[in-house]
Design a protein that fits this description.
It is a single chain. This protein has 454 residues and is an alpha/beta fold. The protein folds into 3 domains: 138 residues, Methylthiotransferase, N-terminal domain (Rossmann fold, 3-Layer(aba) Sandwich); 243 residues, pyruvate-formate lyase- activating enzyme, CATH 3.80.30.20; 56 residues, OB fold (Dihydrolipoamide Acetyltransferase, E2P), CATH 2.40.50. Helix content is 33%, strand content 21%. The strands form 5 sheets. It has a 6-stranded parallel β-sheet with strand order 2-1-3-4-5-6, with helices on both faces. The structure holds S-adenosyl-L-homocysteine (SAH), iron/sulfur cluster and FE3-S4 cluster. The site of FE3-S4 cluster has 13 residues, from helix 1 and helix 7. The site of S-adenosyl-L-homocysteine has 18 residues, from strand 13.
Length: 454
């Protein structure tokens, strides 16, 4: 899963007293989308996004707690906002997201600079609670779990010509992988009604969006508890018929729940891009069992083989954890062997981080930090070879690229993605943004491709 930090760009508000909002996001795409929803809710309250925290009347830090490092980032970030509060005593600082859900009230004690701590199920209450803080100056925590997460249906603005948008299709997770805090912080799985999702995507298409990324911790279990009896493959087929949408992506997919019907969608739904993020976590069956993942290394490879049979050029990316309790050299070698067998197009790799409240805390065989670091290095250097080789195999080809915006690297370049989710930079003007163009790939790097308009 890709991790990102972003502060949202400006939007215009009319008719209400204007105030400035600065959002800092740490964590996964779901958190990035939650931040977009927070911005949409607060826009109605007269808050305009600013990229300048020093100018803000309200700072929201949307947090993550997936690993210790993500949580530490939050504490250091909050520390930096002290100075702003000193300069502007009316500034309100609010913590939302997974760390807020996990720590609740304790955060107000630990961080006196905070005014509000709002958990993952209560984003919809933010405007109302903010009003209380503005009027009374009181400090507020709200971390109750709810039957339904109301904010998953908050519409976000496709900002100034954005061509790509996130759409939440389900939230929460019922899997309880032994290392993971998400089920405790996001609550039980909840699928959005199919019609609601289709309507939202149709509206996005009308406002110029060409690509949607469907979000959920385990999109494959979409519909399991939904009253309309839909499932993920059916949903993909229906989205595939929405005019204006050219590309569909989704994340994340649990390998155990990846059904044959969903695999076949890579052939049957033209708009579904040839990329799947399929986190494997380990190549060792013993470790997979201790992780409570519900599949073996061989079963994972069978799914990969089936995906490639149905869709030969499909790009497969994954997540791996090194140093899970009890991981021996042989287990680690099994992970490297799986990587050699599958040859992932990209891989996100992490050192195991113990999370309070998860089942893995009780497991024996803790792996020492230096060994984790060494394993991570070995694994990452193997992956770099695979990623670069995969990118090099694109040289000389002509790829369909959806142009997303100006390139980060150079002012006169634009940047977009191939259907296999590779970044391509090439010379071109702003008029190309939102269009799908043919680009001849001239040079491959580790993190991107270089090309020329064809
Ligand atoms: N729902 C997704 C994963 C969400 S968390 C899925 O099941 O695929 C994103 C990634 O963070 C996981 O795939 C895992 O590789 C990593 N991760 C989660 N908990 C972790 C922990 N305690 N230590 C290290 N990495 C972890
Ligand atoms: Fe965490 Fe596992 Fe759920 Fe993914 S599927 S969010 S790793 S518990
Ligand atoms: Fe982090 Fe919560 Fe996402 S813990 S990875 S922000 S679901």
């Amino acid at each position: 899963m890709a991790y990102s930090k972003e502060s949202l760009k400006s939007t215009r508000v009319t008719g209400v007293a204007q105030k400035y909002l600065y959002i800092h996001t740490i964590g996964c795409q779901m958190n990035v989308h939650d931040s977009e929803q927070i911005a949409a809710l607060l826009k109605e309250k007269g808050y305009q996004d600013t990229g300048d925290a020093g100018k803000a009347d309200l700072i929201v830090i949307n947090t993550c707690s997936i690993r210790e490092k993500a949580a530490q980032k939050v504490y250091s970030r909050v520390g930096r906002f002290h100075e702003y509060k000193r300069r502007n005593p009316r500034l309100i600082i609010c913590l939302t997201g997974c760390l807020a859900q996990q720590e609740g009230e304790k955060l107000l004690k630990r961080l006196p600079v905070l005014d509000m701590v709002i958990g993952t199920h209560n984003i919809h209450r933010l405007p109302e609670l903010l009003e209380t803080v503005e009027k009374t100056g009181s400090r507020i925590t709200e971390t109750a779990f709810r039957e339904s997460v109301q904010s998953i249906r908050v519409r976000t603005d496709p900002r100034n010509g954005a061509v790509s948008a996130y759409v939440t299709i389900m939230q929460g997770c019922d899997n309880f992988c032994s290392f993971c805090v998400v089920p405790y912080l996001r609550g039980r799985e909840e699928s959005r009604p199919e019609q609601e999702i289709l309507n939202e995507i149709a509206l996005l298409a009308d406002s110029g969006v060409r690509e949607v990324t469907l979000l959920g911790q385990n999109v494959n279990s979409y519909g399991k508890r939904s009253p309309d009896g839909s499932d993920f493959a059916t949903l993909l087929k229906k989205i595939g018929k929405i005019p204006g949408i050219n590309r569909i992506r989704f994340t994340t997919s649990h390998p155990r729940d990846l059904s044959e019907q969903v695999v076949r969608c890579f052939k049957e739904v033209d708009k579904l891009c040839e990329h799947i993020h399929l986190p494997v976590q380990s190549g060792s069956d013993r470790i997979l069992e201790r992780m409570n993942r519900g599949y073996t290394s061989a079963q994972y490879r069978e799914k990969v083989a089936r995906l490639r049979e149905v869709c030969s050029g499909i790009s497969i990316t994954s997540d791996v954890i090194v140093g899970f309790p009890g991981e021996t050299d042989a287990d680690f070698q099994a992970t490297l062997a799986l990587m050699d067998a599958v040859r992932f197009d990209n891989l996100f790799s992490f050192k195991y981080s113990e999370r309070e409240g998860t089942a893995a805390v009780k497991l024996e065989g803790k792996v020492e930090e230096p060994l984790k670091i060494e394993r991570l290095k070995v694994l990452q250097s193997l992956q770099e070879q695979h990623t670069l080789a995969g990118n090099k195999s694109r040289e000389g080809r002509v790829e369909a690229v959806l142009v997303e915006g100006a390139s980060k690297n150079s002012g006169c370049d634009v940047s977009g993605r191939t259907r296999t989710n590779r970044i391509v930079n090439f010379k071109g003007g702003a008029e190309l943004i939102g269009k799908t163009v043919s680009v001849a790939i001239t040079r491959a790097y580790l993190h991107s491709l270089r090309g020329e308009l064809h």
